[in-house]
Amino acid sequence: MFLPDQTRQHAVFERLRQGILTGTLPSGTRLPPTRALAQELGVARQTVVLAYERLSAEGYVRARTGSGTYVAPDLPDAAPSPAPAPQTAAQALSARGALLSAIPASAAARGSGSGLLLAGGLPAPDLFPSRAWARCAARVLQDFAGELASYPPPQGLRVLREQIAAHLAATRGLVADPGCIVVTAGTQQALRTAADLLLDPGDSVWVEDPGYIAGRGALLASGAVPIAIPSGPEGMDIAAGIRLAPQARLALVAPSHATPLGGALPIGQRLALLDWAGRANAWVLEDDCDSEFRWEGRPLPPLASLDTAGRVIYCGTFSKTLAPALRLGFAVVPAPLVAAFVRLRTLTDRGTDAIGQATLAAFMRQGLLAPHIRRMRTEYGRRRTAVLAAMQKHVRTAEPFAVPGGLHMVARLPDSADEAAAVQACRAAGLAVAPLRAYYAGLPTMKGLVMGFAATPTAMAADCARRMDAALRSIGIGD
């Protein structure tokens, strides 16, 4: 906050500066003596002296010994008129910027006022371990006091990378060298970093159809050309990929749980994918973002655990197990690519928040993550069962079906239904559903609503189902 004399000094400076910029005080004009101007304005002479000194320092005026202070001779007679601000984004953005701004990032109803009921892919905020996290954060802040003036290591804190490696070995059967783990701001940054490093504009890439919207967007943003590969109950159709784009540079897959229909690649398909990648000198981006939540059968091992040629980049996140707002994820990168990943992280954002990393490392080191995931899995199982049962009982206008993994399910709509209108009606009823159409890169093969259950308490399941049924009936679906 300015002291009173500083405020007056600034007012004098600004008054004279504006006079110079607008031409009221033209180039070469002699300013009043400091004593005279001080008397006229009713301020101390020192206030005017300091204002003049500031004008001189910024080049607005020049003092001539024994003559006075004059407006600088090399200034225009008046300040240039400001150019009109762009009225549309198209006027402001470059051609590339316009393309980037048009890429879809999500199909969810963020910020629409529909809240979290039935929001897909989101964990439950009421289950976040706030007290345990706060204790870890408080201790970390004490320990980190001397390191706040330095940037975090762009690869991520070694202590966190070691904890991630131990977690992957214990829960996913994936042996990862901490030196090959790069901490990122969620899966999205890992995917985009890989795309920027491995793809040239115009390169073809396989994407699941339907599939992960933001992942497809990351590839589009890097200039790649996504090739829609059909994805069904057994995940991506590898034979179709080889037939449609045999020379693709990269494949983005979720082999344990494809979004949003939940298909999982069987072992034959996994080996075929790795064989193609080796023969085509291509890369595989493995998205394993919610593998902790498998509802049918045993958890499937990562594709990366089968990779002996170093073609797979394994991407994971803590957004589903803890909270998306933490923005903590990671990539397990083949050793020859680590240095490039770290360099691009340095150029992009100088590394991920070190306090958040250290807090997560402390949380994991104290053995708190594994029991938290077990509690989440138990509660999410209850919520999944409650939402599915409520939908089957109360929603006569759609066919709900649960996918075998993840935090969402799908309600299939009749082929004649207006999917966009159905989404709008449900969101107006406070349900944060998403259109199945948005997940398709090509032509959709079915219509439906993608909805979550993790953030929907069991006590709200029946009410949500009744709201959905009423919303769909209000637009003529099911009548």
Question: Which strand order does the major sheet show?
Answer: 3-10-9-8-7-4-5-6
Number of helices: 16
Give the CATH superfamily of the largest domain. Answer: Type I PLP-dependent aspartate aminotransferase-like (Major domain)
Total DSSP E strands: 14
Report the order of strands and helices: HHHEEHHHHEHEHEEHEHEEEHHHEEHEEH
What count of structural domains? 3
- Rg over C-alpha atoms, rounded to the nearest angstrom: 30 Å
Helical content band: 40-55%
Mean pLDDT across all residues, rounded?
A: 89
Query: Separation of termini?
Result: 66 Å
Low-confidence stretches: 109-114
Identify the overall geometry.
elongated
Q: What structural class should be given to the helix and strand makeup?
A: alpha/beta
Strand content: 5-15%
CATH level 1 name of the largest domain? Alpha Beta
Note the main sheet. 8 strands, mixed
Second-tier CATH architecture of the largest domain: 3-Layer(aba) Sandwich
What is the CATH topology of the largest domain?
Answer: Aspartate Aminotransferase, domain 2
Structure description:
The protein has helices at residues 4-22, 34-41, 45-57, 89-92, 95-101, 130-143, 158-171, 186-198, 213-221, 238-244, 267-280, 338-349, 354-365, 369-394, 419-428, 461-474, and strands spanning 61-64, 68-71, 181-184, 204-209, 225-232, 235-236, 250-253, 283-287, 312-317, 329-332, 399-402, 408-413, 434-435, 447-452. The protein is α/β, with parallel strands linked by helices. It has three domains: 4-71, Orthogonal Bundle (Arc Repressor Mutant, subunit A), CATH 1.10.10.10; 130-367, 3-Layer(aba) Sandwich (Aspartate Aminotransferase, domain 2); 372-474, Aspartate Aminotransferase, domain 1 (Alpha-Beta Complex), CATH 3.90.1150.10. Strand 11 (399-402) and strand 12 form a beta hairpin. Helix 1 packs across helix 3, helix 2 crosses helix 3 (45-57) and helix 6 crosses helix 13 (354-365). The model is unreliable at 109-114 (pLDDT under 50).
